[in-house]
Amino acid sequence: MFTVALLAIPLALWAGFVYLGREQLGAVGLGLAMLRTVGVAALLLLLINPDRAVRVAGGAPVILLDGSLSMGVAGGGWARALDTALALAGDEGTVTRFGAGVAPFDTLPPSAATTRLKQALNTSRASGGPIHVVTDGEIGDIAAITPDALRDVAFVIIPRDTVPDAALLDVHVWDRVRQADSLDVAVTIGTWGSGLAESANIELISNGRVLAVRPVELPPAPGVGRRQLRLPPGLLPPGVHVVRFRLVTAGDSIPGDDRRTRIITVTEQPGIVVVADPIDWEGRFLASELGAVALTAVRAFRRVGDNSWIDMSSLGPVTVEAVRDAARQASMLVVRGGNALGTDLGARNQAVWNWPAGRDTTFRFLRGDLYLNGAMPSSPLTGKLALIDWESLPPLTGVVPVAPGSYEWIALLGRLARRGAERPVLIGREVGGVRQLVTTGSGVWRWGFRGGAPREAYRTLLASGTDWLLESGARRVRETLTASPVVSYGESTTFRWTVDPIPDSLTVAFTSAESGVVDTATLWFDAGGIAIPNLSPGAYVWRVTNGRTSGVIAVEEYSEELHPRTVFTAGGDSVAGTTLVERYARENWWLFVIVIVALAGEWGWRYRKGLP
Asked: Do both 259 and 351 map to the same domain?
């Protein structure tokens, strides 16, 4: 355009001067000036022959139709999207559905639990034709697609209409609880649209029965809110339970996103038992902070007399037999005080964390300021303990001198008054698949008492030790095959083989928890020991045939596709299926026609007017 203007303006001035100024032909001169300007400008363009970039489309159009669940829910534009795709395809184009994968076109309702466009774009490039994407814009993998891959793709966005919807976005509950403890539940609720009630009910359902109902306040729409619930103890008997949480809301237009599933193991005894004998500040902080960092139920007992014990949570009296029974059944036993190192409270094959007390007569206790050394020896806990700022911690009050055995490792070292030999503060060992820790230092509770960075260091120490103890070697050997317990619809249920060698395949029987129907499938493992079966929504009890490994898994009906999400906005300057090519002026035949018609017309007009 710039080249045309550069030529046309001086030519128009020259022609106007000739016909209107010198020859003074009036209206006839204006017409002749226009013919000369157009003819000479076109002639000069052909002589200069400039080039320009143009977009060229080729091949039959390819229409990618979004077949995810979000297109078919209340407010979705599936009917409009279907008509639009067919209109864009015409007689020559093809329509392909995309969602979790790529599928041939059909008019069935949308069913894909995810919206993945990248694979569909890659497979459509080979056609060479223009690509149109008909979608509601809620594309899950849009961040993984490069801008170059989207540049020549035309998007037709058909956003879904806003309808009243309340969704149960998440449910957080401990996967292992004690039967006598309350069930603490944290739910995350999202709301959209207008017309919803201000409150709703959360129902807890197991085996088809509603066990509890709790009212909750809904966040103002659109919004997201977190609500805390406490359910009474004893709702679930001991065992493994598939528990469903349902949000019941008046005016909800999309009921599919208000149900979540969780697997909860209920035990008669807690996962961690703390025994303090006698009680001191170390025992008190152990009981309270372990309950905050452990991902399982914690129960603590303290001795108040020769044969008198109390529950540190309820402060009620308990018998010695009850304490011993709880200690034996716990997955992890924490002993503070007189029963440490050689206690007969626990079972022989359980994880134990011993914390000898300074007043114990069994051990020689060295008092004094014990400063920990930040340069830790190599141990299974080094990675997590390295995050602690050791210079910010107060010194411990003393240490029990213990010489580690050849099969033991040291996680922490310290020096009394920063002088003398280094003394082990935290020792670990694993014998026959059973793990144990011993904290020889006293006064670690002072870290938690100070708050801030020292308290976080105290929690890091407890969390790292607890994680290592509960992942005992004996447990790993038994659980050679593990599975993700709960996944949303559209996510992959992943089975992982945890030991070497990895088998090629494994036959697993899946029994539906609802109908009791048994379906047998073959798991094929990749090089990393991962197998992904295709399971429909529901709860299943799985068991390896000719083996003892088993478990419970659940595939939820919930999918993020059901509730509104962020809409991708396509750029407005892209043209589908086009390629930039160079075009020259002489390739345009109509420029030759313009030169001939304009100059011949000027000559003929001048001839009729008798002009030379």
From this structure: no
Copy the structure tokens of residue 194. 């207008």
> Residue 325: inside a domain, yes or no?
yes
Residues 341 and 384 in one domain: yes
- DSSP symbol at 27: H
Which of 53-67, 95-109, 387-401, 554-568 shows the lowest mean pLDDT across its residues?
Answer: 53-67
Strands 550-555 and 538-544: antiparallel
What residue type is 372 in one-letter code?
L
* Cα three-residue angle 352-455-314, rounded to 5 degrees: 60
Do 203 and 223 contact (CB within 8 A), yes or no? no
361, two tokens: 């007569």
The C-alpha R_g of the chain, in whole angstroms, comes to 38
Name the domain boundary from 458, 474, 490: 474
Choosing from 239, 267, 295, the residue where a domain stops is 267
Q: For the stretch 452-475, what's the b/e string if a residue is b when 16 or more beta carbons lie within 10 angstroms of its beta carbon? A: eebebbbbbbbbbbbebbbebeee
- On whether both 488 and 453 belong to a single domain, the answer is no
pLDDT at residue 559, rounded to an integer: 93
What's the pLDDT at 281? 85
Most confident of 101-110, 147-156, 601-610: 101-110
Cβ atoms of 600 and 36 closer than 8 Å: no
In a domain, 567, yes or no: no
Structure tokens at 55: 């977009």
457 in Cβ contact with 465 (< 8 Å): no
Please state, as a whole number, how many other Cβ atoms lie within 10 Å of the Cβ of residue 237.
10
Instruction: Decide if 121 contacts 130 (C-beta within 8 A).
Output: no
User: What is residue 255's three-state secondary structure?
Assistant: helix
DSSP symbol at 257:
G
Per DSSP bridges, beta strands 408-416 and 423-431 are antiparallel
CA angle (89, 94, 100) in 5-degree steps: 115
* Claim to verify: residue 310 and residue 253 sit in the same structural domain: no
Q: Give the sheet arrangement for strand 317-318, strand by strand.
A: 317-318, 309-311, 298-303, 272-277, 332-337, 351-355, 434-439, 423-431, 408-416, 366-372, 396-399, 441-442
Residue listed under structure tokens 């030999």? 421
Residue with tokens 């067919």: 86
Is residue 35 located within the same domain as residue 179?
no
| Among the listed residues 101, 102, 103, 99, the one whose alpha carbon sits nearest the alpha carbon of residue 72 | 99
CA distance 488 to 477: 29
Residue among 95, 91, 45 at smallest CA distance from 66:
95
CA distances from 269 to 14, 274, 287, 328 (A): 103, 12, 16, 9
Residues forming a β-bridge with 203:
213, 246
Distance separating alpha carbons of residues 467 and 331, to the nearest angstrom: 12
Report the candidate in 416, 403, 273, 270 with the shortest Cα–Cα distance to residue 336: 273
494-538: per-residue pLDDT in tens? 999 877 788 999 999 999 988 888 999 999 999 989 999 989 999
Q: How many domains does the chain have?
A: 4
Which contiguous run of DSSP H or E holds residue 397? Answer: strand 396-399
Question: Any idea what DSSP says for residue 17?
Answer: I
- Which domain covers residue 34, as residue numbers? 2-52+582-608
